[in-house]
Structures are given as structure tokens and as C-alpha cells.
């Protein structure tokens, strides 16, 4: 092809900048999975008895299940006995009390990732929970949050300190029988974040979790649970990276959100797990179940995701709109390049009256990548006057990649209105030439066009994240004049 | 300003321009006319650096430099501007954002600092008024949903803001209504200066009533078959191109 298509391809091919490995002394389980491993895991984390029972129940169920095959992704079967289910930096018996007790190498790793855990250095207004392999190594701004009544801590800590909340809510949105990877996660999850916002509280800062896979041959199975009680409000951000390795690594997370009456949860993700090299070797398998229950009237959950990493992404952040007048939103940018595969989308389940959902999905494929949008809009008989609007746009860069759209719509309530729009476009050489003729480099032109394509989603991201997301796509922010 | 010598250009194996010679001095306006498919847009594209063409012979020198050797964005920053015959749409990118990015890349090339946001808005709004456009166009995506005439006017807006040295207008008049033609012509005339040159590709004498050219050239089958003053355009209007092509065939 002509020079400019080649150019576009080069531009999209950026190096993975977070691919370093941190050398650490760790406590790591031998590979393998059976009930003993699960008991050992539960024990090392000092969990209450009910948790071990829950894990074993999930494990027994998982053993009866089969790996799903319906997604538009291809991979060799995973050998679950070859994975280690626990790896943590060595530390004092009862965990670090302050940053001084954390392995300096771990602190250094986060610094390199641009996430300094030292509170003075942090962006004011963002509290961070840092999860390194199987454990949370630090949570910042705990004190300030506590004053507001907000609980923000590793889920392993919540299990010990707030067992009543865990008992009530864990698995109440995504049950341990939900799907293959959710069942596995329920059996072996290691850490993740727990958030509880009490009635009427507006969380005073953005909450954020940064997931880092470091150890080789381990899986990361994190579990996040966010509960927004009546009238509360929270914005939560999640970021992820991993070293470059030739083997594939499994990341199977479960995220559950519960929004009570009048509560608002905004959940944003910038996913940049290692995508594998140019030839498709290595990379993270990102098999994630994320679901929100808009349990109360007038509650609202908004998912925003920017997915640029992982060899395979299999992920459908969903909203169950139980409460009357509740609102679910899904804004997504998924970029796949080289041999990356993404099968992502959302499910909006309308149960309550006057429930509304909005889906805006932007898929960008380059190289030989496959990008699939899969979405379900389901309106139950009870959901009078439910409304959904779905917009699915695909942008192709080059001619060897693919974009696929699978919208599923099930409507059992005649008063419902469901709208679906889809487009597929290409960055044309004419567009590129036009921009260059106005003085922009090809690089800036591609950035500008991709950025324009993703604009509707980026504007949903909190400011700090929008900048990161655009940098990730090799983009520069649109000026404030625009 | 621009010196084209014996320029031969092909697309694939197909020769399109077959020995163009053209000399353009600062401040001059050259009109290029000629039948459909004669190579007018090809000439505009090759001068502004579009890929997909092969230069098989000849040269083009711009301000003493080998123009054909420069990357398209460098040509733009050095002052070559093409108002496209078919302007493209860029969804999601606002006009004003593109303008600012373009202006800044040109300024940077000349060692100038980025334009101040307030100064920029003042500049842009002035030009918008000059071309009698609605300010709302600034905030709409580049050419998206613009009518044919609006797209053409938008090209001239960009030209007015970027202030190039060599302006190539490829059929800017096609698709403009009579009032718009007048406004756009006034816009172009206001940009006339002793150190700025224009190449205007057009099919219609009408444009030349508003913008008086110094020279008129007729391009046919990839060659300039006749050059003259403004009166040549009138002659063409009357007789069409066939007499020239016949003359060429018998020559
Ligand atoms: N990419 C291409 N592939 C094949 N032929 C081409 C290509 N680009 C131009 N041509 C041919 O070259 C010739 C000149 O085209 P060009 O667009 O320069 O004509 P023009 O003089 O601008 O015509 P018009 O007045 O219709 O705009 C035409 O015969 C056209 O079909
Ligand atoms: Mg043409």
C-alpha cells in the first residue's frame, strides 16, 4: 500500500512503556489448584470462616463448568494447574502500618508507573489503593476519608473489619455461579478494593485502585465491591499494567457495584495490561465480570472504560436497572492492535419503571486485530416506559483488521423504546493528507482524528484520567477553545 | 515563487501530466482552465504533496527549494496551501481545533510561540465575518454535514487564517451560489499582496470577473496548450476547448 497507510500503522504501534519487572522477595504459592490451596489462601489472609465456605462452594461449582466459547476470541485452553494462585511481596506479619514498612522496590515500581504512593506527591483529590499481584500494598488518604465516614480499604481488610457488609453484599450482584471466570474468581480471589459510602455522603475525593501484575506464572484475581448507600455519590478510577513476558497471564476479576436509592456511582477504567508483542506472543488474558445493581429508585451507575491493553479482553460491564427511574450508562473506547482481540460491550437489564440506559461504544482496530462489540439490551415486562439508546462506532486503521458488532435486543414491554445506531469508518488517506496540507504531521493528524472519534467517551472521564487515556492512545488533548 | 519545469507525473503506469512548464512570480495570479480529466487537480495535488503519484521527469522549485522533495506538512508550513476541490469531513474534530493546531504547527516551524487563545479567537472571528460565515461553523466538526458551498467557503476561511504564500484553489468556485462567489472572491482579493501568489483552477470565466488573473493557462491532456492574458478566458467561454485541442492535434 501507499506510504501513508504504512505511516498510520507505525504511529499506532507504540512501545509498551510499563513492561518492566520488579525484583522482589515474595511469598508465592506453588502452581496448582485444589481445595487445600484455597484453604491455605484463606488462612494466609486471616479470613473469617464464612469466607472459606464461600470460596469452597464456588470452587466446587466451577469444577462443574466449562470455559465459555461464544466470544469472538481465540486462545489455547488455559492450564489452571500451571498457575500460582498467590504471590505477594514479603512483609511483616500483620501487614505494613505505614509506607515506611513497604518494600522500597514496590514503592519504586509505582513511582515508575507514575503513581507515587507518597501522599504529598499525589494529585490532591485522588485516594489510591495499590494492588501488587495478590495483595493491596497501600491505601492513601485513609484518614481523610474516614472523617467523611467513607470506608476505602483492601477487600481482605474489609473481610476482617466489616464482615457484616461483606456477608450482605459480596456475591449479591455477581453470584459465584454466574459464569466460569466469576466462579473461579469467587474461589481464589486474592485482593482488591472495598468501598462503602454512607447515606447522604458525597465522597470528598476520587477513589482509585491501581492494579499491577508483577510475578510470573501467577494469575491476578481481584475482587472489587463498591456500595453507595442512599443519596451518596462516588467516582472511582481503576488502572492496570503488567510486565512484558512471553507467556500469557490470566487476569480474572469480578467487580460488583451496588447503588441504593438516589445514589450515583461513576466507575472509570483505563486498562493497559501488556498486550503481547507485535507477533502476538505473550500478553494478559483479561476475562472480567463487572456488574452494577441499580437497586434503589433514581440511582445511577455510569461505566466508562478505555481499553488499550491485554492480548484478549473479554469484558461486559453491565447494569441491572432494578429501581424505578434508575439510569445505566456505558461509555467505551477499545483499541486493538497487532494480534490483540477484544470482545467487549455491555448488558443493560431494565426491570424497574422508567429506567433509562445509554450505550456509546467506540472500537478502534489496527494491524491484524479483531474488535468486537457485543451488547445486550433486555427490557422485562415490568419495565414500563424503559428507554435505551445505543451507538456503536468502529474505526479501522489499515485493511487487515476487523470490527464486528453483535447487538442483542430483547423487549418484553411494549411501551419501551430501544434505539440502535452503528457506523464503521476508516481513517482515509484523504483525511490524513488534508491535515498534513494544513501543516500537521501525520502523527498529529492520526491523533487528532482518533481523538475526535473518541471524544464523546473521553469527555465522560475525570480530568486526570482523560489526560492519561489520551496519552495512551498517543493523543494530545483537544484545546479548551474547542 | 514557483518554477515548474518539464513536469511529468504518472499514476501507476498511466502518464497524466506530460511536461508542464509554469513560472509564477510573487504577487501574480494564474488561472488554470481546461477540460475535465485534463490533469488540473493532479497538478494541484503534486504541488501540495499528495501521495500516490510518481514524478517521472522534471522539477518544481518553490522559493529556491526542491518542492517535490519536501514532506506535505513541510510544504504547508513553508506556505503552500491547497483549497481542495472535494474537502474531506473529519467527524469529532471541531473546525476551530483544527485551525488552531494548523496555525500553531506553522508558527512553530517559523520559531514562533503558540498563539494566545484570546488573540486566536479575535483573529478567527474577524475572518469569519470577512467571509460572512456563522460563528457556529467554528464549533462544528470539520466539514461534517456542511453543504457543498459551505465546505468551499470553509477552505477559504482556513486560507485566510493560515496566510500562505502560494495559494492553490482547485475549483473553489464550483458549487458556490452567486452571493457566495462574490463573498469568497472578496475574501481572496483581500489576501492579495505583492508577496503572495495564487493558482486558481476554474471552469468558469465568472470567477475571473471577480478575481482578475494576470495569466490564463489552458491545460489539456496533461500539457499547457495555450497561455495568455485575461482575454483568453473570454475566448474560451465563447469557443470552448475543442479549437485548442484540434490545434494541438494538428500541431
Ligand atoms: N489515482 C488515480 N488513478 C487513476 N487515474 C487517475 C488517478 N488520479 C487521477 N487520474 C486520472 O488522471 C486524469 C486527470 O485527473 P484530474 O483529477 O487531475 O483532472 P481534472 O483536470 O482536475 O478534472 P476535473 O475538471 O474534472 O476536476 C483523469 O483522467 C483521471 O481519471
Ligand atoms: Mg479537478
What key attributes describe this structure?
heterodimer, A: alpha/beta, 11-stranded mixed β-sheet, 10-stranded mixed β-sheet, 11 helices, 23 strands, 35% strand, disordered N terminus, B: 251 residues, alpha/beta, Rossmann fold, 4-stranded antiparallel β-sheet, 41% helix, 28% strand, binds adenosine-5'-triphosphate, binds magnesium ion
Describe the structure.
The complex is a heterodimer of chains A (482) and B (251). Chain A is an alpha/beta fold and 482 residues long. Chain A has eleven helices and 23 strands. In chain A, the strands form three sheets. In chain A, strands 5, 6, 8, 10, 11, 13, 15, 16, 18, 20 and 22 form an eleven-stranded mixed beta sheet that branches. Chain A is globular. Chain A starts with a helix and ends in a 10-residue tail after the last helix. Residues 1-5, 120-124 and 475-482 of chain A have low confidence and may be disordered. Chain B is an alpha/beta fold. Chain B has a single domain (2-250), classed as P-loop containing nucleotide triphosphate hydrolases (Rossmann fold, 3-Layer(aba) Sandwich), CATH 3.40.50. Chain B has helices at residues 40-48, 72-77, 95-109, 117-130, 136-139, 148-162, 178-191, 205-210, 230-239, 242-250; strands at 2-11, 14-24, 29-33, 54-62, 65-66, 80-83, 90-94, 141-142, 166-170, 197-201, 215-220, 223-228. Chain B has a six-stranded mixed beta sheet, with helices on both faces. A four-stranded antiparallel beta sheet of chain B has the order 2-1-4-5, with helices on one face. In chain B, helix 6 runs parallel beside helix 7 (178-191). The radius of gyration of chain B is 18 Å and the shape is globular. The relative contact order of chain B is 0.18. The interface between A and B is medium-sized, with 32 and 38 residues. The site of magnesium ion has 5 residues of chain B, from helix 1.
